[in-house]
Design goal:
By secondary structure, the chain is of the alpha+beta class. It has 5 helices and 14 strands. Helices cover 12% and strands 18% of the residues.
Length: 316
């Protein structure tokens, strides 16, 4: 195990699990007992990406290019703890965090009186990310924590591989990056956020991100210092909740940064790569450090990585 990668932001670090450590993949038999609410979208052409000057050009946010999508349906909100619990109950699935017996947890969410006991290692250059043995989707802050009071929060500590297994059980798929961005924009063209260009119009918080000085103090002015219920803030123009902030969301695509202005139809990313696209930002994003809570912003992580701010939603 190596956990010394410097992520360069509040984005979750890569687990860097050694190939020799990798457990055999777990297949999830059975069928979804209850369908997750979805919104049907007509598809069509939209402008993907951004030329936003305060963004992260190295992330491949631009250039802006026309993308045409076929009709599809997408989850109204991220997969919740209750949803994932139903999946595990039906299939006996074990996530990679459970099989590897650890996951990354943000330092401030680890009980102070148990910090030395629970933290096995921290990430070099980003010591707020702690390797916590026993942290998993059902113990999101480490041993002793639970999800009984957060069943309507997005599930976390799920790897890309775990998300794919859930999607197969639910007879869905992970969205392509293009599908995710089209849906997140909610019908608005080239706006920074799902509701427009102003982060807090009229002083009102419309998403769950960091307020205060990162990573020392979160004032939680939006009401939350960690994940929040998926329907806390108003939906976008397509009726989708929690598309930015709260948790990063896995996409199907392998990550790349080389794009052109040429039109594309149903793009699905390169055929291979080392990391998978993640979109939407999380409760840890802050303007001073990682303003990747914009709809065109993006980052990536290895398919076996997990952390306390990574979740997902599905498409059909």
């Amino acid at each position: 195990m190596k956990s010394n990668q410097t992520p360069g932001s509040c984005c979750p670090p890569a687990a860097q699990r050694e190939a020799a450590e990798s457990p055999a993949p777990t297949h999830a038999p059975g069928q979804a007992a209850e369908q997750h609410p979805m919104v049907a979208l007509p598809g069509g052409t939209f402008l993907m990406g951004t030329n936003y000057q305060q963004g992260f050009p190295a992330d491949g946010e631009g250039p802006v290019r026309p993308v045409t999508l076929s009709p599809f349906s997408i989850d109204t909100y991220p997969v919740t703890n209750a949803d994932f619990q139903a999946f595990v109950t039906a299939t006996d699935f074990r996530t990679e965090a459970e099989r590897f017996e650890w996951s990354f947890v943000f330092w401030a969410h680890i009980p102070r009186h148990r910090f030395e006991e629970l933290v096995e290692d921290t990430v070099a250059g980003a010591p707020w990310w702690c390797k916590v043995p026993g942290a998993s989707w059902k113990h999101p802050r480490g041993p002793g924590s639970g999800i009984e009071k957060t069943l309507n929060h997005p599930v976390v500590h799920v790897s890309w591989n775990d998300a794919v297994a859930y999607a197969a059980w639910a007879k869905t798929k992970l969205p392509t990056e293009a599908q995710w961005e089209y849906a997140a924009r909610g019908g608005l063209e080239q706006k920074l956020y799902p509701w427009g260009d102003e982060l807090t119009p009229g002083g009102k918080h419309l998403c769950n991100i960091w307020q205060g000085q990162f990573p020392v103090h979160d004032t939680a002015e939006d009401g939350y210092a960690g994940t929040c219920p998926v329907e806390t803030f108003q939906p976008n123009g397509y009726g989708l909740y929690s598309v930015i902030g709260n948790v990063w969301e896995w996409c199907a695509d392998w990550f790349q940064t080389a794009f052109s202005t040429q039109p594309m139809h149903d793009p699905a990313g390169p055929p291979r790569g080392q990391s998978k696209v993640m979109k939407g930002g999380s409760f840890l994003c802050h303007a001073s450090y990682c303003n990747r809570y914009r709809v065109a912003a993006r980052t990536s992580n290895t398919p076996d990585s997990s952390a306390s701010n990574i979740g997902f939603r599905c498409v059909r």
